[in-house]
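Record type: monomer structure entry
Structure origin: computed from sequence
Chain ID: A
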Amino acid sequence: MTAAVALLEVGTGEGAAVRAVRVAAIASQHADAVDAEGRFPREAVDAMRAEKLLSIQIPADLGGEGASMTEIAELCSILGQACAASAMVFAMHQIKLSSLVEHGIDSDWHRDFMRRIAREQLLLASATTEGGIGGNLRNSICAINVEGDTCTLEKDATVISYGAHADAILITSRSHAEAASSDQVLTCFLKDQYDIKRTVEWNTLGMRGTCSDGFLFKGKAPAKQILPKPFAEIAAQSMLASSHLLWSGVWYGIAADAVSRAQAFVRAAARKSPGVQPPGALRLAEASSMLQMVKSNVVAGLKAYEEAKLDADRLSSMAFAVAMNNVKIASSEMILPIINHAMLICGIMGYKNGTPYSLGRHLRDAHSAQLMISNDRILGNTSTMLLVHKQDTSLLG
């Protein structure tokens, strides 16, 4: 048993990592078809449900396993080494689940909903983007309308990843019709409480299996399904950090698999010419060094998050936001050079599809990393904070 698997043992029975490895084996079998057909990775998600991975973050008293962000990031990495789209679906589900776990725990409805997620292994999707605001999730045009005990919402959601396949959607809006664009709430709508009409088709270079189409959303639900905390607080204390960390786990997994394929190629070449250093061996060493840098970056970010969770002020601080932004920037920018190194090592066998060393899917999926959320937008936010916040220069955090 590896150290990672041992780390994720949960009470009695098999650990989450053992189960994730089984899911990854299924995801790997269908990864090329998911990519080529641009279809939802239903086999992998069905396996996640069967292994009860969709509820691992939920507290144990509500039917889950109380997994930490560090443990979930490791699962994202395991899945990312098999099928990036499957891993990203899992990561985005867990990101939305973090909003419920961290900010809905004192609400009876949301506690009951978490019990249902654990019992039925429901898949959560997110609708934070909107036509007219670009990718700025901290602004909304649409507003939720509350009348008595009922709320209604219409939203032109330009992206809802796997929206057509989700069991519930957590969606942002202004808190009321007169609210400022940044005065937002997050509401959970169940599948039988909304209609979605596809307006934009997801036909992309990579991450094709996330099926992130655009939809016109129309929903009606009891008003108690609005999360009790403002979305500004949810975004700052759980959503943005979990997004940067879990996405980075997925990206690390993509890069790790690319390096593994390059290593297998070099080893095969070495066996053919014993005693002769094979071409690509030095590039492999370079790729290994860069991969370790990505791992160190993600591990440090996870450690910072777990420590900050113990202090609400620290969790909402500029220092923490800058640190999480930097994790995302570094992870998303470093994986492309790693995969390019692997491509150069494997040569035409990496460039071709259908070989044991094929890297085209890895490279295309990795290009999404700098666009989810745009690195330019993140750098702009960080630069603004650094005008008033002193850069942390300590190695001790």
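Annotation 1: The first helix runs from residue 3 to 7.
Annotation 2: The chain has three domains: 3-122, 125-225, 231-386.
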